[in-house]
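hey m, so remember when u said the tokens were messed up on ur end? i reran from scratch. heres the input so u can diff it against urs
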Amino acid sequence: MTVLGRFRTHLTHELGRSPHTVRGYLADLRALLAHLDETGHELAELDVPLVRAWLSRAREAGASRSTLARRVAAVRAFTRFLHREGTLDSDPGPRLSAPAQQRALPTVLDERQAADALSHTDGTGEGPVPVRRRAVVELLYAGGIRVAELCALDVADLDCARGTVRVIGKGDKERSVPVGAPALDALDAWLTGARTELLTRASGNALFLGARGGRLGVRQAREDVHAHLRAAGVDGAPHDLRHSAATHLLNGGADLRTVQEFLGHASPRSTQVYTHVSVDRLRATYQQAHPRA
């Protein structure tokens, strides 16, 4: 097995990285290995100057800060792995610094837009698809979960009595998130009627099913959300529902630590962006409403 093949196994089975992360890291590292080959260096010679030269070339070619940050993260994980394998005498990864990120504020539906989207009844046709769409949208907003997390849910992950759903997030980390009565009603309509229309031998225990009865795919789930929001006259994307759930919780008085656990963020830094959204909205309201603004 090649070194990248072994590293893929390490990322997937030992570190529990998502398929998306694994693909991104491996693409970056293929580019790094090509750079080493072009410059006449062996893998065992990999050090900080070589990596910086490679990153500098990418920067000159127009790579964004987020791309460069991902490349640094990929190299850090790779050099740590190579050092553990004995390919590198020392690990240069900790001496690599990622460029400072200019994180854009997330797109958030206001409370009225969210209400319009969630109160909309899909009248585009009969059958299981409109029922599934509504359940998907309700659960994404109610639980603030990612689309991939939703598609991975099994029926047993839903606890209607407690009003919670068990979610496996990034890094195979498990969390339990609450869901409200409207989402539970939409899920009940899906489970007791529409889902049975799609059941096949391929269905297994998947909570949401696609047209052929297999587990609902991420692409189709995203299409469900887009279709439902368009029909409701709301301009938004699937991940906006997660952003909106977090922001509305903060606006309603939830503390940052609670929202962090709700979203499954490993670091509070990832959650703090939602406080900026709330402050921006407060500032806009202040400017509009305060007599001495």
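this time it looks ok to me. The two ends are 66 Å apart (CA to CA). if urs says something different then somethings off w ur setup not the seq
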